[in-house]
């Protein structure tokens, strides 16, 4: 236990020192990995318990747009706009989650409902073009270096913001994983009727984890917009973004703490590699390859990259122990 904490502390120190030894491009990639890793972690809090949501593009869109619009039109600081967007995401989670859980809409039916929700939010953002800018999106009103507006020309500031938020997301994941809620949610994912029969409030537990996941996802969307200083409905809302979130979490390993972050690393590096290799000659290459890889991961690597690595290391450890114990057994 002490060695694990020591390794974790060393990793945090290394991450904190990263901005002082890398190029601006590498720092830009690192910021994106941390933000998206946090978003994927927020989704996995539901996904790992069988609540397969394709609607997180809706929560991400609310988080991205509400602080930006409040700032552009009313001059309201993101410090107030971001909590407002998280509250809106929670409200939307309740509006869609309560009837679903009350009526026991589960499995692929729940996935379809959330899929429709994500698309409704996307179409609403596009239709309200006078406010949102439509499909062209909106650029945030720039004021230069400002703590009030959460705008910093230096990437280092956003890197530390992203690092803190990412660590907070991991802390929430661990808190859920180490509490009684995990046992209740696992029981619900196995058999709702049996869980209810032993006194578990099924609807309350499912609604609570949905609200937590929605709020954290909205926070990730807000941070992403503040970093890029531009928001577009196609990049923060809709089915494509929701599928991206699901794919990355599954690819990295949604049942493991760092799995979603590994998924972010994998997808972002893959996207950058495709951009460098194909440029503008293969538009949509990333989505095509994501779809193919998602099928392969589900079939051959259901526990994701981290899960596979854990199995490989565990197998190698067992073999090494058996090899070391063989001479002693023979004696």
Key phrases:
331 residues, mainly alpha, ABC transporter involved in vitamin B12 uptake, BtuC, 78% helix, globular
Question: In terms of topology, how is this protein built?
Answer:
Blueprint: H1 2-17, H2 24-47, H3 56-74, H4 78-102, H5 107-127, H6 129-132, E1 138-139, H7 155-177, H8 180-190, H9 192-197, H10 202-228, E2 230-231, H11 233-236, H12 239-252, H13 259-278, H14 285-300, H15 304-330
Antiparallel strand pairs: 1-2
Helix pairs in contact: 2-7, 2-10, 2-12, 2-13, 3-4, 3-5, 3-10, 4-10, 7-10, 12-13, 12-14, 12-15
Give an overview in words.
The protein has 331 residues and is mainly α. It is 78% helix and 1% strand. The chain has 15 helices and 2 strands. The longest helix has 27 residues, at 202-228. The radius of gyration is 21 Å and the shape is globular. The protein starts with a helix and ends with a helix.
